[in-house]
Amino acid sequence: MTWHIKTFDQLTTHELYDILQERTRVFVVEQECAYLEVDGKDQASYHLFKVENAQIIAYIRLMPKGVSYQEASFGRVLVHSDYRKTGMGRELVQKGLAFLKDQMGEEVVKIQAQSHLQHFYESFGFYAISNVYDDDGIPHVDMIKEEIET
What we know:
The chain is an alpha+beta fold. It contains 3 helices and 8 strands, in the order E-H-E-E-E-H-E-H-E-E-E. The chain has helices at 13-30, 88-102, 118-122, and strands spanning 2-7, 46-52, 55-63, 72-79, 109-114, 127-128, 133-135, 138-145. The two termini are 22 Å apart. Pfam families: Acetyltransf_10 (PF13673). InterPro entries: Acyl_CoA_acyltransferase (IPR016181), GNAT_dom (IPR000182). Keywords: Acyltransferase, Transferase.
């Protein structure tokens, strides 16, 4: 299993295709949420993913300040269904936070989390800064982390 972190321009066409396919499988098909998955933020983002047997099994999109919020952010967090409940999601978020701090110099991170994952993100030091609200039929909450530890 290999972790990769790449800018949009560093992704091969095959990697980009695999990322978009897995994101669509999880967020559009599995979660039954019809929305514009390709949202124009990928080009300004870093893409952290893990590959096993030529398949993406974990992925997170890391965004510098100004892409989604005034703060740095991450999103499109996914773990392939065969690898859920193995600690892969925790490892993925830890690696993403470490990159934001160590490589991008970020200390504050704001995210839009599905509300059922609020406790998961709280375990990393995030706290809610909004009430739960509907986003494309799925309850979400805005959260922030003000100091990244690595």
